[in-house]
Amino acid sequence: MNKYITISELSKLMHVSIHQIRYFEEKEILFPAYVDTNHYRMYGMDEIYQLSHILLLRKLNVPVQQIKECMLSYSADDYNRLLTDSLQAVQSQIDSLMHMEQFIQGILQEQQEWISQSQQDQCIPIYEIKEIPVRHFTTWITIQPNESLHARALYQHRTDQPALFEIDLHYLYTLGQVAVCVPSSNSISDSFVEKGLYLTRSFTVTSEENIAQEIHHLKEYAFQATYVLVDPIILIEKSYLSMLGTDQLHYEIQARIEVTPSKVKERNPL
User: Fold this and answer.
1) Mean pLDDT in order along the chain per 10 residues (270 residues)
2) Which of 194, 202, 172, 197 has its CA nearest to residue 257?
3) Which residue intervals define the domain HTH merR-type in the entry (predicted)?
């Protein structure tokens, strides 16, 4: 009985494709024990251990080009450093996956909140009063209230911000201009809005005319409720909801108000 096995049998034993075994041979990190008279590559125990070694190193993300060096000259200390580096890489991947998990959960929460509000908001627009902390922004572009953003303006004012529309753009409306801003830390911001009570409402639009109507409705509602609005009016473009939704854009409008405690209780009963 022949104690050696063919490349096909080695493939089945080690759960590795024949193509991958041949690739390792091309890179000169694995060789058959011998080639028989029928030109079959034959492999024994040494080759099985050698292939196991190669597969372990690949599992540790060692490049194929480096495996030969590892197998020929690595000491115990070298392998210790290799394992430490691999552990750090795995930890980095775990951190990245945890961040992605939180990211997806945040989008799902936004969607659920939107669905819940839209169900309540079908007949009469519903405004809420929220207590919002101070927020800092970096101004990206300044436009006129009747001006639209266009591709050329975005390019001319391009920033180092990656994944441009994966952040919620904030439009700060003041007298005579609209500042298009991105949230930022206090140390690099050039503007901020104060903490306080904000009149808010989420909505969707299909055209910019709808946005102007929403701003008008907010002012009208505040007037009827005897709230005093404090500039700026803030329009937040919900980027993820817009990209993952239909052909409508999702927004939240906010305006800081001056209101007595009794009025807040009246508008937000327990």
Assistant:
1) 92 96 95 93 95 94 91 92 92 94 89 77 77 93 85 82 75 91 85 94 85 92 92 91 81 88 54
2) 197
3) 4-73
- Give the Cα separation of 214 and 92 in Å (integer): 44
Q: How far apart are CA 13 and CA 25, in angstroms?
A: 17
Packing angle, helices 45-59 and 18-26, rounded to 10: 90
* Separation CA 67–CA 101 (nearest Å): 34
Q: In terms of pTM, does the model score above 0.85?
A: no
The whole-angstrom separation of Cα 208 and Cα 13 is 64
Phi, psi angle pair for 119, to nearest 5°: -70, -35
Cα dihedral sign, 187-188-194-198: negative
Radius of gyration of the chain, Cα coordinates, nearest whole angstrom: 31
Give CA–CA dist 206/88, Å, rounded. 47
Conformational region of residue 124, where left means phi above 0, alpha means psi within -120 to 50, and beta covers everything else: beta
Alpha-carbon distance of 48 to 34, in angstroms, equals 14
Q: 32: which 2 tokens?
A: 């058959």
10, two tokens:
């080695």
Buried/exposed 31-50: b ≥16 CB within 10 Å, e otherwise: ebeeeeeeeebbbbeebeeb
Distance CA 238, CA 114 (A): 11
Write out the H or E segment, with its range, that includes residue 205.
strand 196-205
